[in-house]
């Protein structure tokens, strides 16, 4: 059974993806989570972030995951997800798992770009086809902008 | 035999010899008692428009004083519906009678240069000849061409005299540019005459063989269809072994669109000069 | 023949002038009436005006957008409300005479006969332009005994360019106008992409330009982006480069009355090896992932400044554009040293080199969007190869 809209993908992702665990945010700590975040580079369908209270050298190291949702257009999704790497430490394309075959066949491109690929089902089950490495965002000025967005939320 | 209605006019001359006749007019060589040898053109004009066309040709010639055109001596209208034009007589032959005598490249280029200089006198007045062909070019004893019969010349600045929509405008089809054949009036300018010069150039170099002759080139069954298709005897021309600049000159003159020919007379003359240089 | 480089100046024309003066990035400037008041234009130094071309921008004669209203010869101003029939009967001659007198008085290098923009492929294009502009201007030229060379401005829509019969008619018309030295050609692509990606459009523009040049006409190609590199093969007299995007591609909507303010674009930097502007937000990915990535960004005085941590990147920063002018002008000057087949070989090598660079980026896992990638380059290669085939430059 497949999704009809990207909005359904977003809602299912929010309900079922273990964002807190992926961000390594302890229970009870605030996790930033917002859809359609503007003012960065592209508009991620879902953005989750966690700012640890302290870190090495007292420098706040924001942990962030950006998600682009696509029913099937994996090429466009990859382009958009890559944009989010300019401000997020990890970025995923989440695609309707019933239509994920073409994307999976191009998994190598996702690996090369260090962009994650998740196939999501309507019942909430998901499969991580490409698991990205956590990496510092490419654009420090956008990382700073995201930090400000998270702080002010 | 002179038409009876012309007799009254011709009575004033002696030694009257018919040169050519066709349609509603005839041309005679005659001796004027005061002026000596002259050409007398007589004809009937079927309409005011037709008379106006003849009057226009006379006006143009009177405005030019050049060895490339016969001098106009007299123009008058006589009843009923008769026009009379008297021009200087020039001892000459039409090019159509000696077209094989210009096959040597230098002679052909010299002829072309004369024609350009001559036509430029009317081009400068924004007049297009529209009927440049061997029958309308007289060759004098020293080889200089004389251009005659501006009867269908078009003044670019004036309204067309006829509003008839014809498939083909006034022209001689086998010596007409594509835009004349298609009657695209807005595109007819001096470059249309250039196309005809291109036909003449290649015809002279090919010892009289028309460049669009269907027996030599093209899928068409006529010269006109080959002109419209842009198929000319390029390989036959190449076989003449002339410098490349001459093929460029011929190709440009025979360009299917006016913009493919020479925009200015200066540019054309330069190209002709360059060909002359290449022959040395 | 070698060609010149002119800046297509708009709102920030002072930056263009500075770039030319300080960095020798151009041979002159085309100044549009919409961007500068008449009195300010007249106050520019005479040595600037002597090498300048004035663009009256009569594109939409009924809309005096921006500074157009300061020019009393602009059709809507001259006619106190423009309609074609009234203008033809009453004001065309007066407007033409005034526009011509102004251009003469300013000592511009060429005098431009403006024409209006007409969408699609109108059947009355030539007749309209002749009646409203060409005829009156030529008449005024004769009366004022103008000796400055004349350029006819022609705005080609994509439809006009791509229809062989229509474009032939235009060429016949342009080359048949007596007294013209050349054409100031502006071509509008239908697609609004940042780079020209239509091979057929580019090829047709190459052949149209070449046809004019074969008629010994001066050809100024206006509103160009980096496709000036490809268009150089048609042997233009002058190519242009511009600052903001509205001077690097012609869009009639920028002259329309109801155009809403556009959001400012993201700052982008021209990368000469890529023949592309790349969004600043991708620079970090390139530096980090591409071997030697930092060196991809052209080294010059502006780059050194822009890559300092304190530099505030914004599309309104002049350094971005002065950097672009410096690099693109270098590329164009180099191209201009070649002729014919050698120029084609050189430009082809540039484009293939840029394609190879984008391939390396892709292999390094850098995924650029369609406004930043090299997707325009294959279209350029197709167009120049076809043009070179026509010219007999390809074995």
Defining traits:
heterotrimer; A: alpha/beta; Trna Endonuclease, Chain: A, domain 1; six-stranded mixed beta sheet; 33% helix; globular; C: 395 residues; alpha/beta; 2 domains; eight-stranded parallel beta sheet; 10 strands; 44% helix
SSE arrangement:
The complex is a heterotrimer of chains A (153), B (280) and C (395).
Chain A: H1 6-16, H2 19-22, E1 32-35, E2 46-50, E3 63-70, H3 74-84, E4 90-96, H4 101-105, H5 107-113, E5 116-120, E6 126-130, H6 140-152
Parallel strand pairs in A: 3-4, 4-5
Antiparallel strand pairs in A: 1-2, 2-3, 5-6
Chain B: H1 7-10, E1 14-22, E2 25-32, E3 36-44, H2 48-62, E4 72-78, E5 82-88, E6 92-94, H3 105-123, E7 127-128, E8 137-140, E9 145-147, E10 154-155, H4 178-181, H5 190-205, H6 223-229, H7 234-238, H8 244-253, H9 265-279
Antiparallel strand pairs in B: 1-2, 2-3, 3-5, 4-5, 6-8, 7-10, 8-9
Helix pairs in contact in B: 3-5, 3-9, 5-8
Chain C: E1 4-9, H1 13-23, E2 28-32, H2 38-42, H3 46-50, E3 53-55, H4 75-78, H5 84-106, E4 111-113, H6 125-144, E5 150-157, H7 158-162, H8 164-175, E6 182-188, H9 199-213, E7 218-221, H10 228-231, E8 238-242, E9 268-271, E10 276-279, H11 283-289, H12 301-306, H13 318-336, H14 340-363, H15 377-391
Parallel strand pairs in C: 1-2, 1-8, 2-3, 4-5, 5-6, 6-7, 7-8
Antiparallel strand pairs in C: 9-10
Helix pairs in contact in C: 1-13, 5-6, 9-15, 14-15
- For the secondary structure, the number of strands of chain C is 10
User: Can you list the strand order of the major beta sheet of chain B?
Assistant: 1-2-3-5-4
**Derived structural class of chain C:** alpha/beta
* Main pleated-sheet profile of chain B: 5 strands, antiparallel
What do the pLDDT scores of chain C average to? Answer: 95
Number of helices of chain C: 15
What is the CA-based Rg of chain B, rounded? 19 Å
* Low-pLDDT regions of chain B: 159-166
Distance between the termini of chain C: 22 Å
Mean pLDDT of chain B: 88
Unreliable residue runs of chain C: none
String of helices and strands of chain C: EHEHHEHHEHEHHEHEHEEEHHHHH
